[in-house]
Amino acid sequence: MNPQDNNMAILGQIVKLIPAKLIEKLKNKHKIQTRSFSETSHVVAMLYAQLSHSLSLNDVCDCLHFHAGYLDQIRDCTPPSRNGLAHANATRNSLLAEDLFWNVLSDIKVKYPEFITHGRRYPGFPWRFKKPIHIVDSTTIQLIAKCMNWAKHREQKAAAKMHLDLDLKSFLPNFAIVKSAKDSDPKMAWEVCAPIRKGEIVVFDKAYVDFDHLYHLHTRGITWVTRAKENILDEIMGQQLSEEEIQQAEHMRKNNIFMGQQPIVLSDCRIKMKDNTAKKYPEELRLVKAVVLVNGNPYEMQFITNNLDWSAYSICDLYLARWGIEVFFKEIKQTLQLADFLGTSENAIKWQIWTALLAYLLLRLVGWIAEWKHSFRRLYTLVKGMLWSRRNFCALIKLVDSPSGKKSSQPQVEEQLEFNFS
After folding, report:
1. What pTM was computed for the model?
2. pLDDT for the residue 122
3. Which of 54, 82, 260, 374 could pair covalently with 49 via S-S, beta carbons 3.0-4.6 A apart?
4. What is the 3-state secondary structure (H, E, C) of 101-135?
5. How far apart are alpha carbons 357 and 47 in whole angstroms?
6. Residues 286 and 315: beta-carbon distance below 8 Å
């Protein structure tokens, strides 16, 4: 296939993955009124801001005006004025952008089920677990305190926070909340974990340790794993390792002996909480102490879980898989535009964050369709430089990925610059 054989710019090919009448349907749902600057034009403008890593409203509007002819072919979109785009971000309900992301994700699950199950093979995924694994964490998005009073969480600091439930198998969000950073992680965990079903697995960092919430998850039949805090008050009810196994583990720790990446389990106890914590969590827990390798360096950690049956190695592997959500946050924050914001209101910030997640989803899908084998960052860089090229995106990716792709598909005439000094 000729990579130049397409009558629509790459930006338009990406937008085509959004169901045709979905934006209009959501516009009516949220009762958004528009005139010359349609809601589809608004969404496309914000997607362009993410995919091009635009730094300002002028950056977005000037480039869209310059490519107005290309833009017209993308569902009759029109370029916005600077004030028009700023007003749309500030006044048009950001719930539309949130609903758009979840509706596009639902549509992809129906049309491309293999993308959800095999679209991303995270190397830290423990494949022996057949049940869904949820990783819950949050990331802070720094804002400017002087002009964003709604996001102030300290005297001189302002920030928004994205609380996320990541499906480790698909490497896509199951649930997300974007709001001011004022609310603590344990408080938000109740809402983030509400959709998780009985029998599924959820993994937290130790910042989420709230025994009221953990016991609530336990009563719902959800298996949870987290890291124990250093000041945990517990009473040991029984040791699940033999004396010989404990001595062997101590010998391996002292001599720094590891079997590949397998952790060294030092202790595996059944415990009950003490004092006031016992009222919050009256049943037995499990405390696993182990030495794990993190980037090749040994660290001693202790994990707690409500599962009393799995091996201690499985508990360790589940918690170490939590690093996947850090990789996800790194991908979206270091590639997409989540540093320079196009507005200061809460609504405008949410518009930009939700369209960043939408851009991430669409790029991941295009990369999967084209069998892209490299990093998301490299894919984003490729797209950013060719948004207005009228080439078949999938064929272009395959050409770049092939050994012959290093050479130009068109013969080039060598020209030499000559200077006349006479």
Report:
1. 0.88
2. 81
3. 54
4. HHHHHHHHHHHCHHHHHHCCCCCCCCCCCCCCEEE
5. 10
6. yes
- For β-strands 133-143 and 201-203, DSSP reports them as parallel
Strand 264-273 versus strand 234-239 pairing type = antiparallel
pLDDT tens figures, 123-164: 788 888 889 999 999 998 877 654 556 555 555 567 888 999
43 CB contacts (<8 Å, ≥6 apart)? 18, 23, 97, 100, 355
pLDDT recorded at residue 399: 76
Which residue's entry shows tokens 């991303």? Answer: 120
Give the whole-angstrom CA distance, residue 330 versus residue 130: 27
Dig out the tokens for 265 from the structure. 């389990």
Average pLDDT taken over every residue of the chain:
88
CB burial of residue 282 (10 Å; 0-12, 13-18, 19+): exposed
Task: Report d(CA 354, CA 50) in Å as an integer.
Answer: 10
In a 13 Å sphere around the CA of 178, the CA atoms on its Cβ side amount to 21
Q: Are 133 and 203 in contact (CB under 8 A)?
A: yes
